[in-house]
Amino acid sequence: MSNSTSLKFLSGCLQLFFSIPLISFLYIVWMFQAYPIFQLMFIVHLITLIVSLIERRRFYGSVLGMTASLIGGDEISMEGFFLLHTGVTIIIFHDAFKSRKTENAEAS
Known about the structure:
Layout: H1 3-19, H2 21-31, H3 35-54, H4 60-72, H5 78-107
């Protein structure tokens, strides 16, 4: 498995973890602010984007993840937050599986 595919699975898992409303709410209450989590996820998506570009793999999920990290810090409803980040999670995992399928085809 290539580095970009591994990073996509990692960022997808983190995105999924933080898109669960109860976990996000508890983290925000614990930290008293949500911005560090959005900054962390932006950096993870940026690194994934750079590695994907270097390896010439799909990168749409990383771009959407960076966008969601920027938008997610604003005042949006909990439902909007959940839908936005869950949708991005699905796209990131789709990119990861497509990249893995491409790797398997190239190896054959």
